[in-house]
Design goal:
The complex is a heterodimer of chains A (114) and B (112). Chain A is mainly β and 114 residues long. Chain A is 0% helix and 54% strand. Chain A is built from no helices and eleven strands. In chain A, strands 2, 4, 5, 6, 9, 10 and 11 form a seven-stranded mixed sheet that branches. In chain A, a hairpin with a 5-residue loop joins strand 4 and strand 5. Chain A is globular and about 40 Å long. The N and C termini of chain A lie far apart (37 Å). In chain A, 34% of the residues are buried. The model of chain A has no long low-confidence stretch (mean pLDDT 93). By secondary structure, chain B is mainly beta. The mean pLDDT of chain B is 93. Chain B contains no helices and eleven strands. Helices cover 0% and strands 55% of the residues of chain B. Chain B starts with a strand and ends with a strand. In chain B, a hairpin with a 5-residue loop joins strand 4 and strand 5. The interface between A and B is medium-sized, with 20 and 21 residues.
């Protein structure tokens, strides 16, 4: 089946620094990828839709200047959390749209901001 | 705005028993997904239901979709401990082919 990878799987950073998370579709091309955030014991919240070759579409309430998304190729989307603060600590999950309407989820990146 | 409601949110059941998780959604959609999430892990795709009346089965899990009632069910047959996990349904949002709105999830615990 289709595989989506994320890197890093976990990261600890200091408040005020920036962190980049990569999402790759390993064996298929994805023109559309999604970025989600999940807080403990909660559901997934869609942050933005990442479209290859165009600007990302952000959900209401998500700061586009804080969460920078770049979909530079058909297999790679990146999410950069700028000037991270402890409240940005969360589990970030990407998904990529494959064939037959399937969405394949990456393994997630656990971000801890100290 | 599309709303997706799952119930129950918490389910504790004994091995060998049957139970159903319900997923209701508020606006028209013809595509619904079920996912499983283990603690600390990402989502594992279980089913994609694409049309009214769709029924899919995998092992002890069976999912169905009634688009007219805006209802999907995930039925668990003869539960085993390995099925303990959080189950999410997700519905494609109107006006988008792929944007998903998730339910809150059902935390299933299967006790020996």
């Amino acid at each position: 089946g289709a595989v989506v990878s994320q890197h890093p799987s976990w990261v600890i950073c200091k408040s005020g620094t920036s962190v980049k998370i990569e999402c790759r579709s390993l064996d298929f091309q994805a023109t559309t990828m999604f970025w989600y955030r999940q807080f403990p014991k909660q559901s997934l919240m869609l942050m933005a839709t990442s479209n290859e070759g165009s600007k990302a579409t952000y959900e209401q309430g998500v700061e586009k200047d804080k969460f920078l998304i770049n979909h530079a190729s058909l297999t790679l989307s990146t999410l950069t959390v700028t000037s991270a603060h402890p409240e940005d600590s969360s589990f970030y999950i990407c998904s990529a749209v494959g064939q037959n309407y399937e969405q394949y989820f990456g393994p997630g990146t656990r971000l801890t901001v100290t | 705005e599309l709303k997706v409601e799952q119930n129950p949110l918490f389910l504790s059941m004994q091995e060998g028993k049957n139970y159903t998780i319900y997923c209701n959604y508020s606006t028209t959609s013809d595509r619904l997904y079920w996912y499983r999430q283990d603690p600390g892990k990402s989502l594992e795709s279980l089913f994609v239901l694409l049309s009214n009346g769709a029924v899919k089965q995998e092992g002890r899990l069976m999912a169905s979709l009634d688009t007219k009632a805006r209802l999907s069910t995930l039925h668990i047959t003869a539960a085993v401990h390995d099925l303990s996990a959080t189950y999410f349904c997700a519905v494609v949002s109107g006006g988008s082919n792929y944007k998903l709105t998730f339910g809150k999830g059902t935390l299933l615990t299967v006790n020996p």
